[in-house]
Every structure is written in structure tokens, then in C-alpha cells.
Amino acid sequence: MEYTVVELFAGVGGFRCGFNEVTFDGEKVIEQPNWDFVWANQWEPSTKTQAAFDCYCERFGESENHVCMDIGEIDKTTIPNHTLLVGGFPCQDYSVARSLSNEKGIEGKKGVLWWEIAEVLEAKQPPFVLLENVDRLLRSPSSQRGRDFGIMLRSFLDNGYAVEWRVINAAEYGFPQRRRRVFIFAYHESTDYYEKMSKVPAEQLVYEKGIFAVNFPIKDTKLDEGRSCISPQDFEDIVYISDEFDFHFFNAGCMVNGVIDTYKVEPVECESVITLGDILETGEVDERYIISEESLKKWKYLKGSKKLERKKPNGETYCYSEGAIAFPDYLDRPARTMLTSEGTTNRSSHIIGVDEEKDIYRILTPVETERIQMFPDNWTNIESKAMTERRRYFMMGNALVVGIVERLGHYLKDIVDNEQPR
Question: What torsion, rounded to 10 degrees, do the Cα atoms 402, 140, 246, 165 define?
Fold first, then answer.
């Protein structure tokens, strides 16, 4: 079996950087030949310019297989065959319904990107799939907890896959950011891996033998657990899942043959920690990153605790409160979760103390945000006019922790190595 990858929602190439251990010296990109990325799609519908795609092409080269168009407009059968499908996709409302005439069968909400992934699964049947999303996916929507993830699991089941998932906080495994994301690994029933792992008891799969258990160890204590079923015997089709399924997913679990087993688990935390202080640029930074005296008061207000009286749409008043965030950020801990608003005058932006006695503080530099996500320095510093400095911050706030997928990439290669030729 070949080590071929299709990358959906590619962004600036986080999966590729991790899988192929990419380095960049400011001029030349060096990519290890671990995986062959045969097709990639990146499209940002909310902007006329395509900064992320420009970055992907500048670093990995322009190619007819680097495609910048709405994935919904692409005929999925034209995508090259591949061993592994990867992507970090948005968390949206995945509700479904029947078409009015029932002639088109089940329809998902327009513009929801999960259905594009489902179409690729149906059209190409890749042996393996690795996806990344925000951890709230497991709880959405608030009105019907677990429905959206249940729809995804049923989509995998209908296409012949078993699934494992785990919420991983990068900092707990030695990476420089406290970033919680759910990773989803699926394997097709045609693979030797499926034949082997489908026979492993669910608890053993989650705690010992699954891809996440091996690479991101957890304690053997069982804090809580749950079981449900989403097979056709339990729910006739995805519409019934959308209408009726309600389930509490914990931070780890698996789905095999329509049976869902989920567990609340705790990490075996890494002893070595990369802190925010470890990744800061040395020497003086440009003056434009220094917080002015005029705006310092606003920054301290945003970071501080507060209780505010607000009104509901019906006119009823209530008290909104929020706790303080460290000002400046602690340098002896991993960075907080970085958001797309990083670098703006925003409560969530990181603040570095330059000289606290003199009240001198600064925001992170773009290079520091790249280091937090474990990209090479200046990865997003490209010639494209679309990639402004503000967009560089946005790209990193939207990216994944490269070190996590690098670790998974090595293990996936071993899994593919053990597949028998067909």
C-alpha cells in the first residue's frame, strides 16, 4: 500500500508539515519523503484573497493538484486515489432532513463541510482517515448533546469504517500550547488493520492498543463510561440520528460495527514541558509589538475580572462576570490556547512582560505564534499581498499543533507498512 495523502481544508499545510517533518531556513523548504501528498484543497469563502492557499503553494510549490476552489463544487470522483485522508474542518450544525420529494434521499444543511468529507469517503473509500476538530464537536448542539458527532459516526459506519477518537491537550504531552482538540481516526473494513482491531475489546482499544492510547498514553483509571448504538437496527438512517440521537460522549472512545463505547480518561502527562518562555524570540523585538501607554489601561481592563449588568432580549437584566487572565502571561507554562484574534487588543491575546517595573509589555510576534503551533519560523512570511501580518496571526490561530500530527504520522506509516498487498 502506498503512503499517499489527500489533504482537505489544508490551511497553510499543518498536516503536511507534521507528517513530513518539514523544516524551513527562510529560503528552502526541506521535506522528508515520509508521505506523498497527492492532492490538497484550500478555499476561504469569506475573503476575496486566498492567503492560506498562497502560503501552501509558495512553500510546497504550485501544482494542478493544489486546488483553490470551493470543495462543494468539486467532483469527488476526480480526486486521486489515496491511502490516507486528512483534514481539520470547522465545527458546524450537521442536522439533516429528507428532501421534499424524497428523490434525493437525505440532505445535509447547505454549506456544511462534513458532507464534503462524507462524499469523499463514499467516492474514494480511502483505507484510513485522520481528522481534527474543536473538542466541542462531541457536545454539539447544546439542544441535543452528541447529535452531530453521532451523525458523523453513522456516516463512517455507512461507508464501512470503524472509528477511534480522543480529545488531546497538546501541553499535557510536552508541546508548547494548552490546546484541546478532538482527533478522529477511522479505518476501512477492507484493511488488515480493521480485521485486527475490530476484534479488540473496546476498553482495551481505548486504553492500550488504539492509535491514541499508544501515542498519547492515559492512566488506567476509568472515571466514567457510556455505551450506545447507531446501527441501522437502532436508527434506520441518518435522519433518525438527526431527529432522535442524544448521547454524552466522553473525551475518548471508539465505534465498531455501530456500537459506541466512550470513556472519560486522564492523560499520563509528559514530564518535559515546553513553556511560553522557551519559544520567545531572543533580543529586542520591533517597536510595533510594544503596547503603548495609551492602550495599556484598556489591556489591563480586558484581562481583569469584572461583573457587568447586561440585558436579555426580553429586557430582563442579569449579571455577567468573568475571571481575570494572567497579565502578563506566565513564561514558565505552555502558552494558552491561541485564537484567530491573537495579536489584536483582545482579552485572549498573549501579553509578554518586557520590563514590568517600567510597565513595558508587548504582544507576541508572528514568529512566536508559529513556534506555539510548532511550524518553522517565518512559515507564513510570504510575498503574497494577501498575507498581511494580521493574516499571519489569524492563520496560526486557526492551525493545529504540528507536533501532534508528526507523532501520529510516524505511527500511521507503521500501520500502512503492515497492510498486505492487494
Answer: 0
Domain with CATH 3.40.50.150 in the chain: 4-270+401-417
For CA atoms 330, 333, 337, 340, give the dihedral sign: positive
Q: Dump the DSSP string for 85-103.
A: EEEE-------EEE-TTST
Average pLDDT over residues 168-193: 97
Among the options 17, 55, 57, 91, which is catalytic? 91
- Identify whether 91 is a catalytic site residue: yes
Q: For 388-408, how does the pLDDT look when each residue is reduced to its tens digit (9 = 90+)? A: 999 999 999 999 999 999 999
Asked if 131 and 189 touch (Cβ cutoff 8 Å), the reply is no
| Cell 487572565 found at | 325
Cell of 410: 510516524
Round to whole Å and give the CA distance between 325 and 361: 15
Whether residue 314 has pLDDT greater than 90: no
Q: Mean pLDDT in the chain?
A: 93
The rounded distance, in Å, linking the Cα atoms of 83 and 89 is 19
Going by C-alpha positions, the residue among 173, 15, 176, 31 that lies closest to residue 87 is 15
Q: Which residue has the cell 484574534?
A: 341
* 377 pLDDT more than 80: yes
For 195-252, write each residue's pLDDT tens digit.
999 999 999 999 999 999 999 999 999 899 999 999 999 999 888 998 999 999 999 9
* Burial (Cβ within 10 Å: 0-12, 13-18, ≥19) of residue 144: middle
**Residue 293, all three cell numbers:** 501607554
Q: What's the chain's length in residues?
A: 422
DSSP codes joined into one string, 346-402? STTS-EEEEEGGGTEEEEPPHHHHHHHTTPPTTTT--S-TT--HHHHHHHHHTS--H
CATH number of the domain at 4-270+401-417, please? 3.40.50.150
Does the pTM of the predicted model rise above 0.90?
A: yes
* Euclidean distance between CA atoms 266 and 138, whole angstroms: 17
Q: Are strands 84-88 and 66-67 parallel, antiparallel or unpaired?
A: unpaired
**CB distance 372 to 279 below 8 Å:** yes
